[in-house]
Every structure is written in structure tokens, then in C-alpha cells.
Amino acid sequence: SGNVLSVRELRTEFRGGRGNVRVLDDISFDVGRGRIVGLVGESGSGKSMTALSLMGLVPKPQGQVSAKSINLDGIELASISPDGLRQIRGRDMAMVFQEPMTSLNPVRKVWEQVGEPLRIHQGLGRRAIRDRVLEMFELVGIPEPKARLDAYPHQLSGGLRQRAMIAMGLICEPKLLIADEPTTALDVTTQAQILRLMQELRDRVGTSIIMITHDLGIIAEMCDEVNVMYAGQIVEQANVFDLFENPSHPYTRGLLASIPKSTESRIARRMPSIPGMVPNLARLPSGCRFRPRCTDAMAICQTREPAVTDLEKDHRARCWLHARQDAISQGEPL
Ligand code: SF4
Ligand code: MG
Q1: Which PANTHER family does the protein's record reference (predicted)?
Q2: Which end of the chain has less Cβ packing within 10 Å, N or C?
């Protein structure tokens, strides 16, 4: 199929003293081959949790991940064993995090860490690993790559560390790279360079990427398709043009309306804010979970959770404003 990843009805719950909290609910989306797909939302909306759930990195036993299907290019991850998933992770599906310093070991040379997936998944020897890391350093644009192989993480700038982490993510030529706020910790110039690098890698190597960000500017520049997340659900899904041209969920509209104009600082643009707060997932409001912040709320929004409505091809929203009238009056699940 044209999809590298197809997720259906992903749910993640955490067991706590006062019962279970569902942190992700009914997450369904696709990532096409060679596409960059965004997950965008405020912090606490479930973006990172979605990535961790896909990667099998949700802490156990408190965290429980279930799904109707998580299909990674023909491999069904929803029913795979922990051992099977360990084989996939870093080989077929890799992740790049926000702050590379915390995911690097300070006392190991960079090349050994970047090459670690080759040791684990392909059993290569040190010579072959070192050669391959050098190739990857060239690919991701690390200057003087040979001299950088034996560096320790603190000897690299933040931007070079993030390039090294991207090299590590790509070293086994994964089908899918998940980038969780990969540039948030970087200065504006370096941020632009890293984003350009990721686009080049998509164009040259054909890497499919899930781009997690709270920055709508990054979404607009980078992504083909977008999933807007709110309180553990995807509330709107569209290609990037439709999302910006015709935002349909009140949350998306609020986010777009709150983007400061270009004369204001980029920092401000990165943090759009609309009135109110993301609800506590253990104490969700009745009906629609966006209702306390929604300026369009209707009576039905208080009593019934909205289901997903198709608006046009590949554009859907989870909101009563767009539900079929007959479905609303008959009270049927959509
Ligand atoms: Fe607002 Fe109702 Fe739509 Fe929820 S379902 S976003 S409360 S209009
Ligand atoms: Mg996060």
C-alpha cells in the first residue's frame, strides 16, 4: 500500500491509585511513503505519548497500550511480542528527541553511540560501524566529519548533537522516523538548518517522518498532512493546505487565529495560546472534552462525545458542528 504506517484505534491507559486514566483515545492516522505527517497540539495533548506508544516505550506495567491495528509496512505491531518490537525499534522505526544531550551518554564517543543500532541490529564490527557512521555524518552535514567521530557529546554544539542524533535515527535506514520536537531546544538559525536537513533527507532518501511539534509554523513549512491533537484525541485531520485554508474544528480555528503576525517574535509565534487549559484527563468534562473552551458549544456538546465526521476527502473533524443532522437527531453513534 502507499502507507508506511497505518494506526487504528490506538488507546493508551495508565493505571493509578484512583483507577485508570486514558491518556490516548481512539487515535487513527496514516503516514504515506515519503510523507511528512505532523502531530500538533498544546503540551499535554498526547503527541509524545502517541510516539512512545508506537515505539513500545510506554512504561510498563502502569502503561497499557492497545490498538485495533498498528501496521508498519506490513508488520502488525498491535500484536507483536516485546522481543519482536525490540527488533523493529531502531531498525524499521526510529525516534529523535527534543534534547539530544539527555539521550546521549556523556562518557562514550559519539561514533560508538550513533553506530549502536548497527551493532544491535546488524551485528557489524567496529571497523564497519565506524565507516558507516562517517557516511552518515556526511549525509547529515556534520562539518569535518572524520574529526568529529571521536568527539564526546559535550564537544559538539547543540545543532551538531541533533544532527548526530538524526544520523543515529537513520543509520539502519528505517521505514519511519519519529521526530519529537527535534528543534525546540535549538536557536532559530540552527532550527531552520535542522528542518531543512530533514526535508532534504525525505527528498533524497525517501524517509517517512512523523513530525511532533507545537509550532504551527513548522507544520506549515514541513508537513504534507496534519493531525491536530487535543486532550488525548485527534480532533482534526487534513492535508496541510486544507487545514490552513479551511480549519474546521473550533480548537484548530483558535490555534490558527492566535498565531501572532510575522512582525512579532518567532518565540511568540511558537506558543499560540487560546483561553483556558487542557483538561485533566482523569476528570474530563462531560460530552466534548473541548467544550469548556469552545465558543461554538451547543447543548448536545454537553451530553454526547462527538465522533469523527468526514468533511471531504482526507479531511475529518471530531466535532458536532460537522456531524450529519440525521445522526444527531437519532442519537446514533456516527
Ligand atoms: Fe465545540 Fe461542540 Fe465541537 Fe466540541 S463538539 S468542539 S463543544 S462545537
Ligand atoms: Mg511532548
Answers
A1: DIPEPTIDE TRANSPORT ATP-BINDING PROTEIN DPPD (PTHR43297:SF2), OLIGOPEPTIDE TRANSPORT ATP-BINDING PROTEIN APPD (PTHR43297)
A2: N
